[in-house]
Amino acid sequence: MAKRRLSARQIERIQAIQERRRERLAARPERALAELDDELEPEEGRVVVRHGANLAVEDAHGHLIHCLARQNIGHVVCGDRVVWQRLPDGQGVVTATLPRISTLSRPDYSGRDKPLAANLTRLAILIAPEPEPSGYLIDQYLVAAELIGVEAILVGNKMDLLTGAEERTAFQARFAHYGAIGYRTFWISLLEPESIGGLVAELAGQTSVLVGQSGVGKSSLVKRLLPDQEIQIGRLSQATGLGRHTTSAATCYRLSGDGFLIDSPGVRSFRLGDIDRADLQQGFREFRPHLGRCRFGDCRHDQEPDCAIRQAVEDGLIAPERLANFHHLLGD
């Protein structure tokens, strides 16, 4: 039997009902969802981007769904794993967030931490021969990574600016103390494609962010790691119906190696917020074996006698520039 064709009036009524449902959901998601709770099956997904009250959620099959979040579940951010329910019109409502393994945040204007992204596993810190690298900034990023439980790596970009082998060796030697305490380091140039393979392999299967000072080539590296970025942006725009400006917010892109790269201007300019001395010490991983061995419990590792940290510096176990940056971060 042939399917019954809907009249223009019936189609118009259905569309009007769906539009009213969308308006109720946008204005009162709690009430709209309560009307449908018994009919909806919960699913898990990953938040790809958040723009205001609107979320793009990737389901288990890689499809993107435009969702809104319940008001009582807290601040949902890019990278969050969530429970969501699909509405009859194809959109969805996020009903819960799953526990995070890490949260990247930065202070807002009032000094309170504002989450930027969740569930990171790699923090890639970019440096380059130009502009002159800042060890102080590198150590800020490393402390932040240690405190949020994310593995940090150091990426020396634009190595083609150093034309001679001696220049490259001298530049790399300036950062050898990071490798000595377990931070993996990659030396790359976008003009030397074979140099990038190790970094690509490192990011495969991970959820990563790129950070670093202006001018080190973050945008160019993102384009190399995401050759289909424009296609992904188009999919997001189509899924959310909000246009391409959605990606001004932190966005979780798929890497070719089955990993993810979270990117936005805010994430790239991430900085360490206020931190007390005890947490700061823990952020310097090579300090940890020596903590608690100073004569004084409140030792600032400066001029105090019998300081275990300063003794470790003298013994070559801690790089002097790391202790100097510790004092800089501490505000000494």
TrEMBL record:
UniProt-listed Enzyme Commission number(s): 3.6.1.-
Binding site for Zn(2+): 294, 299, 301, 307
Gene Ontology biological-process annotations: ribosomal small subunit biogenesis
Gene Ontology CC annotations of this record: cytoplasm
Gene3D superfamilies: Nucleic acid-binding proteins, P-loop containing nucleotide triphosphate hydrolases, Probable gtpase engc, domain 3
Domain of life from the UniProt record: Bacteria
Similarity field: Belongs to the TRAFAC class YlqF/YawG GTPase family. RsgA subfamily.
Organism this protein belongs to: Allochromatium humboldtianum
Keywords from the UniProt entry: Cytoplasm, GTP-binding, Hydrolase, Metal-binding, Nucleotide-binding, Ribosome biogenesis, RNA-binding, rRNA-binding, Zinc
Bound cofactor: record note: Binds 1 zinc ion per subunit.
CP-type G domain sequence ranges: 101-270
InterPro entries, alphabetized: G_CP_dom, NA-bd_OB-fold, P-loop_NTPase, Ribosome_biogen_GTPase_RsgA, RsgA_GTPase_dom
Chief localization: cytoplasm
Record gene name: rsgA
Residues reported to bind GTP: 157-160, 212-220
Domain EngC GTPase residues, every copy: 118-268
Protein's cellular compartments: Cytoplasm
Primary role: One of several proteins that assist in the late maturation steps of the functional core of the 30S ribosomal subunit. Helps release RbfA from mature subunits. May play a role in the assembly of ribosomal proteins into the subunit. Circularly permuted GTPase that catalyzes slow GTP hydrolysis, GTPase activity is stimulated by the 30S ribosomal subunit.
GO MF terms, alphabetically ordered: GTP binding; GTPase activity; metal ion binding; rRNA binding
Cofactor(s) listed in the protein's UniProt record: Zn(2+)
The UniProt record lists the keyword Plastid: no
Enzyme class label: hydrolase
Protein name per UniProt: Small ribosomal subunit biogenesis GTPase RsgA
UniProt subunit comment: Monomer. Associates with 30S ribosomal subunit, binds 16S rRNA.
